[in-house]
Amino acid sequence: MNSITDAGTATRRRVLGDMHVDRAEAAKTGFDAPFQALITDAAWGHVWSRDTISDRERSMLTIALLAGLGNDAELALHIRATANTGASRDDVLEALLHVAIYAGVPRANHAIAIAKKTFDEMEAA
Questions:
Q1: Which of 5, 35, 59, 65 is most buried by a 10 A CB count?
Q2: Which DSSP category does 103 fall into?
Q3: Are 49 and 7 in contact, with CB atoms under 8 Å apart?
Q4: Per-residue pLDDT tens digits for 35-64
Q5: H or E stretch including 46?
Q6: What's the rounded Cα separation, in Å, for the pair 55 and 48?
Q7: Per-residue pLDDT tens for 86-105?
Q8: 54-125 maps to CATH 2.60.120.10
Q9: Domain residue extents for the chain
Q10: Whole-Å CA distances, 6 to 2, 18, 45, 115
């Protein structure tokens, strides 16, 4: 491994949790291994590992972008990750209010429903 891959792997584990990363690694095949390497290096090593903004801020940005683009499964994943990033429920709501204005009320409405369900699941666990 190289330093970017090492940093990406460590950051991915810190943000998403060992269980998620272990599951993704166990499910990896020869077909998607290049994709897993790409996201580990690019998303987690080059972007999330930067020290220019906090994990909390990065989490809020990611949630807003995923909600605005309608990436529901990834949105739920990153809402669960708020337990590790320091982003609060209020932070998530603020991000989704921005989605309503800049990406559309239907996207925000759907994302709020996902957030409520995900937070309820987190509380129940």
A1: 59
A2: T
A3: yes
A4: 999 999 999 999 999 999 999 999 999 999
A5: none
A6: 7
A7: 999 999 999 999 999 999 99
A8: no
A9: 1-52, 54-125
A10: 6, 14, 8, 31
